[in-house]
Every structure is written in C-alpha cells, then in structure tokens.
Amino acid sequence: MRKAEKKKESFHKQLRRIAKESNRSSIWVYFILRGLVIACMVLEFLRGDMNNAFLCLLSLVLFLMPFFIEKHFKIKLPNMLEIIIMLFIFSAEILGEINNFYGIIPYWDTTLHTLNGFLAAGVGFALFDLLNKNTKNVNLSPLFLSIVAFCFSMTIGVLWEFFEFSTDMYFRTDMQKDRYVTSISSVLMNEKNENVPVKFKDIEYTIIGTRDNENNIIETRIDKAYLDIGLIDTMKDLLVNFLGATIFSIFGYLYIKNRDKFSFVNNFIPLRNEDFKG
Question: What residues does each domain of the chain span?
C-alpha cells in the first residue's frame, strides 16, 4: 500500500514540477480531460455499461503515455503534440465510441484517421532524424527520411486495421463500420464456376436469414442495398492515413532542407531533452 501511495505521490509531484517549470498548457488540458473522463466513467458505471466504463479507464491510462515516454525514454514531446495526442484519445474513445460521434458526425472517423497518419509520420520522422543528427557514420538524405516517415506511418495504419479486423472477427464488435452499397461484382456467384465476375447493379434488396435459439428462421431485409462488412471502411481509413502521412512527409522534407523556415514542424516531432528549445 505504501509503495502504491509513493508512486502516486511521485507522479503528481512530477506533474506539478513540469507545470511549474514550463507552464505548459498540456498539463491543464490533461487535468481537464481527465476530469471529464472520470465523470463519464462514473456515469457509465452507474448505468451498468462496463464496456464503456472500461473505455474510460483505458483513456485515462493512454493520457499518461506522453508523460511516461518523457520520463523513461528521455524524449521531450512538444507542448502542441502532447495536446493533440490527448485530444485525439478523447475524440476517439470518449466522443467517438461512447457518444457515437462516429455515427452522428460525418467524417469524424475520417478526420481522426487522417490525423493519425500525420502524427505517426511525425514519430517515424523524429526517430530517424535523431539517428541522422547524432550518429557520425549515418547520413540520410532528406528524401530518404521522408520516405521512411511515410512508410512508418502506413505500417502503423495497417497494424491498426489488423487490430480492428481481429476484434470484429473474434469479439463480434463492429470497429470496421458496415455500410450500404448498391452494386457489387462477384466471381463466387458465377454459376459456371468461371473466373468471370457477375455484376449486380441497382440492388433492390438483400435478405439476411438467421436462426434463433428455437431454430426458427429470422429474415432481416435491407432495402435498396447490399451490406458491406468493413472492406470499404478499411480502404477508406488506409487512404486517408496515406493522405496524412504524405502531408507530413512533404513538410518533413522541407524541414530538413531548411529547418529555420519550416520550424513549425518542431511542434509535431519528439526531440531529445537536450535538443528541446520549448
């Protein structure tokens, strides 16, 4: 019990020290968002929704990641980057999942995936830029750094889509959001078993037949559409991740060529403590 209290006290002392030394607004954003998440978690607990309560708890843990990274890896996250990360977590988990902003607000999911591509490219760029600046035997060109940042971001995006697919398959969630489509092409529907797709246009309806516990058939009708179960959502997410990664990679290239003119890029890339200028 004493060890837990000591760790808790040490962490809060660290936050107070950071706030006192730098007056970073990210500290205040952290406490405000943490208060909102705690209130949401209590509300979901009272409602009996343990899944949403767990998402709130997960968000609280993720909020600590920037401070954990700074403390244990001796890497400084710019103030703006910390704020964006925390707002991203809050927007994805609390607003998106619990309050259904994904369903209510158009392009909410698209915006977050685009931002994720941008931020992930910044992290990949920073890793190799630090290597480039602090190793005499390594001299990576600006173009190579940009390509590496882009590839790093796309890898993160692909791994996330693997996670969504696995969760939907094994836990029957719907992270890869379904959507209606009005036309499809399918080789499987070719009656002659030929590798020639059969095209269905202007679909009038689709019927899904299932059985209940008493072995009765239940039919669910979808009018004027066919139900796509995640493929379009996955490809859309990867496409906007590609867009975000490309945008940062271009700015990263320009930043290497002229660090003074494009110094705003420093707001989005982690730095070593000794390289950080505030």
Answer: 1-105, 112-172+230-278, 179-228
